[in-house]
Write a structure and sequence with these properties.
Elements: E1 24-34, E2 37-46, E3 55-60, E4 75-79, E5 87-94, E6 100-108, E7 123-131, H1 138-147, H2 156-164
Length: 171
């Protein structure tokens, strides 16, 4: 039997390793209000298959629509790095916020410092906040309380006494 036909080749083998790239995006973005204080909770994560170096998160307090690329936020937060699969929660408190309705957004890596596997998912929002005036007078409160049926129209003075005992937070 012939044994010299068991050899084949040469064969070229090409091995391509997947690029290890981060994918930065938000897993949560919430807002709450207490009087004129607005509190944001921003959770940014790396859903990619590689680590992310330093970057920033931009918070936009009030925009009519998604902020355009490159526009700096009202508050800029810095993130040193994010390992693959890790997240970081960034709390932001805005005090003495003027009364009004707010439509807020966040964006990670606005300056494109981190080369990501997906650059199109770096913005989240809007979340909505309503900030009311803390300067309601007892007169205004009692008119509302009477209109809502909490007090009868003849009990205005009783309502005023009740209201004067409320704290500014309760008002």
């Amino acid at each position: 039997k012939r044994q010299d036909n068991n050899i084949a080749g040469p064969v070229t083998v090409s091995v391509t390793l997947p690029q290890l790239r981060p994918d930065l995006r938000f897993s949560a973005f919430t807002v709450s209000t207490n009087g004129s204080t607005v509190t944001y909770s921003i959770r940014v994560c790396n859903f990619g298959n590689g680590p992310a170096g330093p970057t920033q998160v931009d918070l936009y307090f009030n925009r009519p629509s998604t902020p355009p690329s490159g526009l700096s936020g009202d508050r800029v937060l810095f993130v040193t790095s994010l390992a693959q699969g890790s997240c970081r929660t960034l709390p932001v408190t805005r005090s003495s916020t003027p009364p009004g309705s707010y439509r807020s957004y966040v964006r990670v890596d606005r300056l494109n410092q981190v080369q990501e596997s997906n650059e199109s998912n770096n913005t989240r929002g809007p979340v909505y906040a309503l900030v009311t005036s803390n300067s309601l007078t007892c007169n205004q409160i009692c008119i509302t309380a009477i209109t809502c049926g909490i007090f009868s129209p003849t009990d205005f003075s009783q309502c005023s006494i009740w209201c004067s005992n409320l704290s500014s937070t309760q008002k």
